[in-house]
């Protein structure tokens, strides 16, 4: 086909041009290293050039473009553009031969339709097999042709095997997604989307778009991506670098609060210093209160209670002189400064400089000419007076003094917390020293709140928050402080809320995030989950009590099987063996408490598998919250998480060391590189990657099958393909084949167990197997 040959020739041209760009970038790295300039710019330039050289070097033979636009009318009349992941220059100074997908003209590729062709006569989509151009598909928009969802190339791409970490979706961004991706930097957005509607993908592509369109404005502040846990971050970590953006910080809310998961939690560590006389239920209660928005005001009062009215004049000696600021003037300085509502530290600085200014004026009246050295001397002289009325403090100290002193707490919480609530969070005795305090994850939000009152934290130009429905009001405030002068993209699904403080509606959550006016948009087309699974999930959705729209699936393929087993573990092993006879990644998901036996059964059956988090098999788990979600009171938060807070040591509590859930924070739970620890068979760094059967199967199947006999294992024994996943870790991940074991246990394992089940059931890309002994807590479409 001559046209295909022409396109292949263009591919060659692009690859040559890319190689020339690579040579140029390498040369620039060398030259750039010699360029004298300020250190900051030199470093940035060097980083940029190096990463460009690296990217270009890594994939000179990858697909250089995925689309083509032939314009017939409008500003681009008569022009043809190839659209790709990155811009490719032709001749130096000449027209680019491939346009970046984020450029303004590329927008038409995603948005044009037969109804509104945006000047385009022909839109061409290219199909690639590995790095070989295998074909293309045209839409003659000028003739009213518009394939929409019937595009074979789009469908193949969406249903393509997902091998490895999450991929970019630049070639197939859908119009409703593109609208969000290209929203301006000044606009804050909230995307409510059912599972698999592409919220995460949209958020990451928006980050890449903003960095392209507003590079200068984002130069200093940058973009921050917040995800629910490090496993999830590992899963998404490759998307932005693949889009050429390596400078985006990706982390968790816990991490920005300084929470880290300590090694060997659950054996000899405990919650806060003062919790030892509480029952576990009370510890839960304490965390819930600490995450409540009312704590913000309690802490503000506690901090500013340190500011005192002066009750003596300032008198300082200066050689033979004695300068004096009358008590009344001193008071006025303190009162005026308080009213100005700056941060505590700025207020303190301001009192100091105002006192120094008053002294200077007196000196000038006496005919002296104070210089800078004199001013510094006076500032040192007034420091002891300042220490009394506006003392320097550390955030941890403020929190410790509040929780360790019931009368201070009663004062600060008056009218805000009930006496019962105050008792729940109070420590029975003050800690002997800050170093002895075993801070909890819930304390971290309090410390961060006070730190934000002392000094504003570093702000970002744009913050993307994924799984935002799970954040507590106080966690939201921590995010808000970091985006006070920037905008946010809030991604979430009220139906997937699993924390005790999960948002029930977006307006309240957005208010806590400091962006009450953010536009709320719903995404309703699912790109992950097959339609019969979506139908089941929609039924469950109707009992979750949240006001969110139902989803419809883009996918017509897929399989759903439910089997009532007479032996749960035998049936599970059989289901996994059956899954292994297909291509693709497999997850076996069960209630956290079931994992140790499940793992043992799979091992006994000789099925190699990866556990994303290690388990303490000695105790069945009873944990009920997402790992690293700061949950209250299942001890994951109050006892099992420790935080960095000025190097506080943890103290052991013999009371809780025997009865805590053992799943929560295993020995290797939080490796520094964001990959998952390997426990048994070590095959993959991620729990994720789907690897679906790519063949399109129109009209997938939903069946109920009787208990299965052992399927002959045509697999490789599971090497690298089977992940055993506790239900609390499934959020945000996807697998080709998912085996859900005993949904009733997942549903009753925690307060929002049905929401958890909703998350678990929506992880499958191609096939979902539900294995159960007990009645299903959901109805399955026939
Ligand atoms: N336009 C698209 N083209 C191709 N793939 C897409 C598109 N949109 C989404 N996907 C794919 O669908 C899957 C689900 O997307 P994503 O994880 O972003 O959804 P989500 O809404 O964040 O899901 P969840 O709520 O379950 O975390 C991913 O594999 C993603 O790459």
TrEMBL record:
One GO cellular component, as annotated: cytosol
Stretches with biased composition (Basic and acidic residues): 650-663
Region span, Disordered: 611-722
Keyword annotations from UniProtKB, A to Z: ATP-binding, Helicase, Hydrolase, Nucleotide-binding
Binding residue positions for ATP: 193-200
GO molecular function annotation: 3'-5' DNA helicase activity; ATP binding; DNA binding; hydrolase activity
BP terms from Gene Ontology: recombinational repair
InterPro entries the record matches: DNA_helicase_UvrD/REP (IPR000212), P-loop_NTPase (IPR027417), UvrD-like_ATP-bd (IPR014016)
Sequence ranges assigned to domain UvrD-like helicase ATP-binding in this UniProt record: 172-530
Keyword flag Hydrolase: yes
Protein name: DNA helicase IV
Organism of this sequence: Sinosporangium album
